[in-house]
Design a protein that fits this description.
The chain is of the alpha+beta class. 18% of the residues lie in helices and 39% in strands.
């Protein structure tokens, strides 16, 4: 169950020593060498865990996301994916939404989280809970450790097939019930509007 994975990894993260993880992932070296996008987007660095062979990591990834102040990962949904971002450094504004329905050229969402969080906080998502997320760097530098796992719930059907991210605009006015009919937008449009 995707939700069970979310809650289990959040529990695991809460028991981890952040300073040891920063050292094991060599975050300081990544920060010295990472290349930032031209736009105000978060930079992404794939991480190889030395104790794992490539065959051991089929179906999941290990990534560091690095945000400068004001840079972001634009709001988006995923299909057939679970993911968990553990904040290692800095402060990040997190906005999350439940995905309720795929409508024509839009996704109906419901806000669940809007807050600023720091080291030790985990933001997880799945098909079933907080499927839409949007991150923005608040401090000069912020770093998250992300573990995405693919091909979850392969039988689940969506109105928008996707191999990656489905970008949406959740800033349109909500309906009377508080839900948002968020238009599906292209990546370039998402960059122009949010980055």
């Amino acid at each position: 169950m995707p939700q069970a994975w979310q809650h289990a990894i959040e529990h695991l993260h809460s028991a981890m020593e952040i300073s040891e993880l920063i050292k094991a992932l060599d975050v300081d070296q990544v920060l010295r060498t990472i290349k930032y996008p031209k736009e105000k987007l978060g930079a992404i660095q794939d991480i190889h865990l030395p104790s794992l062979q490539p065959k051991d990591t089929e179906g999941f990834g290990c990534k560091l996301f690095v945000y400068r102040k004001g840079s972001c990962t634009p709001p988006h949904a995923h299909n057939h994916l679970v993911s968990a971002h553990l904040i290692l450094r800095g402060q990040i504004r997190t906005r999350k939404f439940n995905r309720l329905e795929d409508a024509q050229q839009s996704i109906v969402i419901e806000p669940t989280v809007d807050g600023v969080f720091g080291p030790g906080h985990t933001d997880s998502m799945s098909d079933d809970e907080n499927n839409v997320h949007w991150f923005e760097g608040v401090s000069d530098i912020a770093v998250t450790f992300d573990i995405p796992v693919w091909d979850i719930s392969p039988g689940k059907k969506y109105g928008y097939p996707a191999n990656g991210q489905i970008f949406i605009d959740p800033t349109v006015p909500p309906r009377g019930d508080g839900r948002i009919v968020a238009p599906v937008i292209s990546f370039p449009t998402a960059v122009r509007k949010f980055a």
